[in-house]
Task: inverse folding
C-alpha cells in the first residue's frame, strides 16, 4: 500500500514566524503532538513537537533524566514557557525533517515511525509540499 | 484542486420523530422520542466537499473549527476522504438541529446556532493559510454564513484573492456577506434564499423579479447565477441565456431537504470541473440535489441513480 492511501489528509501546519503561544494553542485544541512547518509555497521546511518545546523550556533535562517526572519544581517549566511564549517557533523547530513522499510504501513510513520513535510523520508530494501526515494510529488502523 | 471555505461550519444533528409533541407543563406525555437520529459534519461548503469526495474529486475543506464539535467536523471530513485545513479557534463549533416529522419531512423544523466568534488574529492566520492553498486551486467555493463578529467583507477579500491567483470563484451566501462578495465579481453565484427571498435588497419572490435582479448581477460580470425558485425548480441566468431547470417529482417524496441545495451546487461544480457543458452540469446538479432530498441520508453519492434522476430534469430557455 502507498503512503497516500493510509495517511491522514490534514494540512494543519504553521509558518516559521508563528509564535510558540499560538503553536501550543493549536497543538492543544487540534489534539496534535507535533506540527509541520511550511514556507509560503506550502513546502515542508521544519517540524516541531511538544518534546521540542519542553526541551526549549528546560534544556538538559531530557539528556540527563529522560523523564520530566524528575523535574524538582514545575514552576521552573511554567516560567520558562512564559519566557519563550512570544518567540517564533523557528527558534526551536527541527530543520532536518524526517518525512516520506505520498507514493512511498507504507512499510517505509512504518519503519521510520518505529525506528525514530515518532508519533507522526509528515507526507510531501514530489514538489516537497505538505499533503498529509502518517500517524501511528493510521498504521495500526490499516494493519487491522 | 477545489477548495471549499466554510467559515461557520456546524454539526448537523437530525432527529426523526413521529410527531413533535408540544405542551405547557412538564409531563411524560409531552416527551417526544426520536425514532432515530444522525450526527454529521455540516455547513454549506462542507456539504459540497463531502459530495465532491464521494464523487471521487480531491478537494480541501477550510474554515474555522473549535471545541469538541470541531473535532467531530474534522473527523467526519477525513473519513469522507476530504483533505482538511482548518484554523482552530476558541469556542465551540455550532450545532444545527433538524427535526423531521413523519409525513411532514418536506417541511423540516430547523434550529440553527449562530456559532462562536472568530478574532481578527484568527482571520489573519487563516488568510495566510488560504493564500498558500490558492497556489494549488482551480476552483474556490465560499459558502454559508459568517461567524459572529467577522467582517461581512470577508468573502469579497477571499474572492478577490482567489481570482488574482487564477481560480474560479463560486459563492453561496446571503445578506451582507453576499452583497460584499458580489463586488469581487465571482464566476458563479447561488444566493442562499432559505431565510429571506432577496438578494441585495431586491425580492426574489417571483420568476420576473428573480430575472430582473439576476440580470443586474450578471451585468456586473458574474458569469452564472443560480436562484432557487421553487423546491423543484431553479432559474439560471448567464450572460447569454436564461433557463428554468425543473424536476418532475413530487415534493411529498422528499425525506430530507438538509444539504440538498449544496449537493445541487456540488453537482454543477463537479461537472464544470470536468469541463462538461453548462446545461449538462445544471441538469446533473438538479438531479443530485433531488436525489439527496429523496434520500434519508443528507448527501447522496450514487452516480447511477443521479443519471437515472436526470431523466426527470428538464431545462427550458425562458
Result:
Amino acid at each position: 500500500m502507498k503512503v497516500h492511501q493510509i495517511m491522514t489528509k490534514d494540512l494543519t501546519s504553521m509558518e516559521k514566524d508563528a509564535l510558540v503561544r499560538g503553536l501550543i494553542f493549536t497543538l492543544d485544541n487540534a489534539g496534535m503532538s507535533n506540527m509541520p512547518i511550511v514556507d509560503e509555497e506550502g513546502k515542508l521546511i521544519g517540524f516541531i513537537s511538544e518534546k521540542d518545546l519542553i526541551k526549549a523550556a528546560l534544556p538538559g533535562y531530557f539528556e540527563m533524566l529522560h523523564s520530566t517526572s524528575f523535574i524538582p519544581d514545575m514552576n521552573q517549566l511554567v516560567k520558562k514557557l512564559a519566557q519563550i511564549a512570544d518567540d517564533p517557533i523557528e527558534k526551536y523547530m527541527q530543520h532536518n525533517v524526517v518525512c516520506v513522499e505520498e507514493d512511498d510504501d507504507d512499510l517505509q513510513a512504518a519503519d521510520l515511525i518505529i525506528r525514530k520513535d515518532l508519533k507522526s510523520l509528515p507526507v510531501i508530494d514530489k514538489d516537497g509540499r505538505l499533503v498529509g501526515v502518517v500517524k501511528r494510529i493510521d498504521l495500526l488502523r490499516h494493519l487491522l | 484542486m477545489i477548495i471549499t471555505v466554510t467559515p461557520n461550519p456546524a454539526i448537523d444533528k437530525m432527529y426523526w420523530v413521529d410527531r413533535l409533541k408540544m405542551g405547557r407543563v412538564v409531563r411524560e406525555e409531552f416527551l417526544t422520542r426520536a425514532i432515530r437520529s444522525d450526527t454529521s459534519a455540516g455547513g454549506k461548503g462542507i456539504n459540497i466537499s463531502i459530495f465532491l469526495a464521494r464523487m471521487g474529486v480531491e478537494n480541501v475543506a477550510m474554515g474555522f473549527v473549535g471545541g469538541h464539535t470541531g473535532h467531530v467536523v474534522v473527523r467526519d471530513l477525513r473519513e469522507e476522504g476530504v483533505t482538511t485545513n482548518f484554523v482552530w479557534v476558541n469556542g465551540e463549533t455550532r450545532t444545527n438541529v433538524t427535526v423531521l416529522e413523519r409525513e411532514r419531512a418536506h417541511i423540516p423544523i430547523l434550529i440553527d446556532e449562530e456559532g462562536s466568534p472568530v478574532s481578527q488574529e484568527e482571520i489573519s492566520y487563516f488568510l495566510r493559510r488560504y493564500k498558500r492553498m490558492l497556489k494549488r486551486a482551480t476552483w474556490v467555493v465560499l459558502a454559508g454564513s459568517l461567524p459572529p463578529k467577522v467582517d461581512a467583507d470577508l468573502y469579497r477579500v477571499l474572492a478577490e484573492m482567489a481570482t488574482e491567483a487564477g481560480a474560479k470563484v463560486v459563492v453561496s451566501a446571503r445578506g451582507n456577506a453576499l452583497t460584499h462578495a458580489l463586488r469581487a465579481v465571482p464566476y458563479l453565484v447561488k444566493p442562499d434564499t432559505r431565510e429571506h427571498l432577496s438578494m441585495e435588497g431586491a425580492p426574489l419572490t417571483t420568476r420576473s423579479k428573480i430575472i430582473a435582479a439576476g440580470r443586474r448581477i450578471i451585468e456586473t460580470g458574474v458569469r452564472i447565477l443560480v436562484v432557487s425558485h421553487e423546491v423543484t425548480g431553479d432559474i439560471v441566468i448567464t450572460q447569454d441565456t436564461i433557463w428554468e431547470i425543473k424536476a418532475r417529482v413530487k415534493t411529498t417524496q422528499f425525506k430530507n431537504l438538509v444539504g440538498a441545495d449544496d449537493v445541487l451546487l456540488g453537482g454543477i461544480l463537479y461537472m464544470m470541473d470536468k469541463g462538461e457543458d453548462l446545461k449538462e452540469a445544471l441538469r446533473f446538479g438538479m438531479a443530485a440535489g433531488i436525489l439527496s432530498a429523496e434520500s434519508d441520508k443528507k448527501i447522496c453519492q450514487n452516480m447511477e441513480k443521479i443519471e437515472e434522476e436526470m431523466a426527470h430534469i428538464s431545462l427550458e430557455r425562458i
